[in-house]
Design brief:
The complex is a heterodimer of chains A (413) and B (81). Chain A is built from 13 helices and 14 strands. With 413 residues, chain A is of the alpha/beta class. Chain B is mainly alpha-helical and 81 residues long. Chain B starts with a helix and ends with a helix. The chains are: A alpha/beta (413), B mainly alpha (81).
Chain lengths: 413, 81
Amino acid sequence: MARRVVITGLGVVSPVGSKPDDFFNNLMAGRSGIRRLESSFAEKLSVRVAGSVPDFDPSAHFTKMQLTGIERFSQMALAAARQAVEDAALVIEEQERPRAGVYMGTGMGGATTLDECYQELLLRDEPRLRPFSVLLTMNNAAASHISIAYQLQGANVTYSTACSSSAIAIGEACRQIRHGYADVMLAGGSEALLTHGAMKAWEALRTLALEDPNDPAASCKPFSKQRSGLVLGEGAAVLVLEDAERAVKRGAKIYGEIAGYDCSSDASHITKPNAQGQERAIRSALRDAKMQPQDIGYINAHGTATVAGDVEETKAIKLAFGEHAYRVPVSSTKSMHGHLLGATGALEFMAAVLAMQNNAIPPTINLDQPDPECDLDYVPNVGRRGVALDAVMSNSFAFGGSNAVLIARRFQG
Amino acid sequence: MSSLETIQRMMAEQFDLKPEVLAPDAQLESLGVDSLSVIEFMFNIEDEFKVKLPDERVEIKTVQDIANIVDSLVAKQKSGS
């Protein structure tokens, strides 16, 4: 029989809080972490709102010597991993190390360094780049630094499937344990691409939200008639996943069990989301969990607030859930933290797990006038407490058509 | 004039090390400065002393090794060769 996998530690660096409790309390209170960027290039942006983490202080986490070799997306990943390991009170004995691994997701890896490289070469006409440039920029830097920091000698893999990267990292890490290749995995994602180059590229795609003229923090409006697009965010989320037997034996605090996961591909269009592709991932994750739609008490939606995306996800939930679609609360916490791309799947799965743990459902904020085509219960504006939640779902649907769905349930030993 | 003092000051700054541990014969590895960090540090050295390191690999084990390389490069530059 396949082994069971539980979540025993959480760590987060996000626009709405950089501790799991702060993160979740802010979500419940409907506090937005979306703000106007103050970067040097901000004035050159047409859209300058983002879910940034201005209070992230690298020097609080790393020595000066470490910082020369660890770039922002890896710094955030390491800071989240450290919290998760401490939260789990995880000790990996020397003989266990080959069976402990790390799976991370990221979209653009060391985007900050890449931007700086081009500026050096093209703007300042520098003849040479910093020797660390490759090591700072590479997508697998974050996972590798985590592997080194915690002596994880098993698999060290980085997924880059745009917006579903870290959901897939968590799902595949779960399979590593389930199928007996590992006993402990650190899994999650990180993204730090609020750079001049990356933001301009996103601007050009015309999928970014316009700044709300009255309140920049309210610019991301999932499922609303007024929605105009997504808001980029940065941050990291890391979970400790553990073989249930190991966790129980050591008396670990258990947040929940990863009950189901699967992914699918739309195989239809590079950006246009596809309800049938999404439905396949949802159904497949439910099958994996041996669950029915009515077993799910809350869905943390992908809910990017793009015009096409929210309608398509609504359709997909209806296709997969049937009548129960109208009864299950669905919220998009992106309305508060923005779209963290490669980190977003992990961050939102964490939000769903914390919802289950607290029996509390975070709202979709900025939802005063729903789009008539979005007619589910999106938990508008006000979170709900005292809702018994035994199982929760998190959707991640990416550019490129790569869909991933994760299901967590309350752990019963 | 030897570049040693300037190098010691730069290393203390970049790596957050106490000046007293940066004796000329101090082993870089034992200060926690690995070969990769040395390469990164030499990048700053090039800027500071306006020199260009040769492409071939040079053995750098101690603080004095760095000073020797810089001194010889500066001397070469002065003599115009």
